[in-house]
Amino acid sequence: MRDRSTRKDVIPSLPGGKARNLLFCQAVGNGHYSSFALLAALVLITAAANSYATTNYTITLADPDQHLLHIQVELPEGPVQRQLQLPVWNALYQIREFSQYVNWVRAKDRSGHELTIHSLNPSLWQIDGTQNGATVEYEIYADTIPPFGAELNSHHAFLNLAEVLMYPVDARSQPMIIRFTHLPENWRVATPLTSSSDNRFTADNYDRLVDSPVEIGPFTESDFDESGAHYRVIVDADPADYDITKITATLRKIVSAVTSWMNDRPYDTYMFIYHFPHGPAGGGMEHAYSTAISLNADFLARAPEALASVSAHEFFHLWNVKRIRPQSLEPIDYTRENYTRALWFSEGCTSTAADFIQLRAGLLDEPHFEQDLSADITELERRPAHLTQSAEESSLDAWLEGNAYYRRPERSISYYNKGELLCIALDLALRNATQGHASLREVFQWMNDNYAKQGRFFPDSAGVREAAEAVSHADLAAFFTKYVSGTDELPWNDLFRAVGLRVAESTNTVADAGFAASRNFDGPMTVSSVTPNSEAERAGLQAGDVIVELNGHMPALDAAQDIAPLSAGDTITLKAHRARGDHELKFTLGAREEISYELKDLDVVTPQQRAQRALWLKGEASSER
User: Fold this and answer.
1) 609 and which of 17, 93, 167, 500 could share a cystine (Cβ 3.0–4.6 Å)?
2) What whole-number distance in Å separates Cα of residue 83 and Cα of residue 486?
3) Distance CA 463, CA 342 (A)
4) Per the confidence metrics, is the pTM higher than 0.85?
5) Where are the domains of the chain?
6) Residue 322 vs residues 88, 220, 317: alpha-carbon distances, Å
């Protein structure tokens, strides 16, 4: 390095720019040496060179049957000591401590001599003697399901890279290269990362690297072009469980509808990755240039419309979350919880947008849209916590969702559910305040123009209010105080009147299971409470039991979803597990009175209301002034 730094002919090729080159020339030009200037120049050159040094990763699919990845990290020349951090969370707002899966860590210098490693905490390692570069190797277990996990088995590999890749703490913002080796025959690699060669891919920095999921295996691929962009559709599933032609046709409609609705396309290529297992599944994970979606094959066969719904939601996230992003989530801290009060907007309003997108694409009709909206209102109103926990508080408490008690209806609401309804309400409020000339679409476009495209992040709920007031020229302080940060009941009938609808309330007799149970993404369904003196209690069901099977099927995310289609008096069979062993329970469902809510036409719907409804169902504002 010393020899190179005094040669003028290599200066222009070094990164850092005109100012550094000028400083160096002033220091050594014409034989006049200034010790201060020379030292400053050397410092700048070294810093610039280090800032462009690349971290190289190699992931070896070492042992698919044992779910083991062998990972090698090549560190360039640099400080005497380097620290490597493995994230403690990714994909979900839950601390998951991926270091629990690390079997061992080793390091050596360029000459092959072993280097000393210190564990500073369970997810942070310090390596001594790295000034001339180092090779760090470790083995990590990967057997958590897509789309929120890292999985390697004899069938395929799916990787959320933040769950398996340590990053150099002092070089997270520097370029990264990753290579995959020892792939079984006929396995290929699919990822939105930039491809180099020989299963080698590049990224500008660690954040970009780990925001790029990787599917490796004998997957099926179907590509298409739409509105100037290229789309790759990757499917890992039994061919009997899906029709890729239908999936592609659905996605073509979605991407066309979204880019038209946003009047924007911030990418040239985009990748959809799908898994349709017969085991646990359900959900999607957004990324800047891709999404990974997992749907249970049996559920998809019963409800094929679910694919369009989750695909529209995850695709819209490339704007709302990945680009229109809360300030409170930046910069990402992989070492602790990242708290925000804006998930009601980032997640809930994405669901609202996804509905409008499906309506525009012809993938959802008015009756089903209003039926789904009625079910959402019912879900919120049936959770007593909607009177005690605000949408902002629900967002802030997202990190508690892994706990069974927190998911109980008297403890929490869902920022997905309340957020979606809030954005329906905000959309209607904007229309009412502007005689139909402003809508949620204008809010998203304003935030895209004034935040995303400017490289800025919005200040949580205050930023949403700013955008809504900018497009409507209305004072929305009361709306945000009462319904976003507060727990006031939403005035549904006042809001829906402009589109000729009302919310009707009715009381129904429904099946009562006598217990509450839910599961945390890929975890088991756990019973959180059993109603005293219920048939479930008499049958022997206990809080803490793990429900393995309900009426012959793997249970859904929430037992209430499995009970909803049944009637009082029906018999259900549970297979449950507890510390003393497995057992089967059979009991009769009880009955209880429950309030339901349904959207209905007003007794008289005016032509103006019908015209406003037509615009509402397209997610559009009136162009007439």
Assistant:
1) 500
2) 44
3) 10
4) yes
5) 2-51, 55-218, 338-484+617-625, 506-596
6) 20, 27, 6
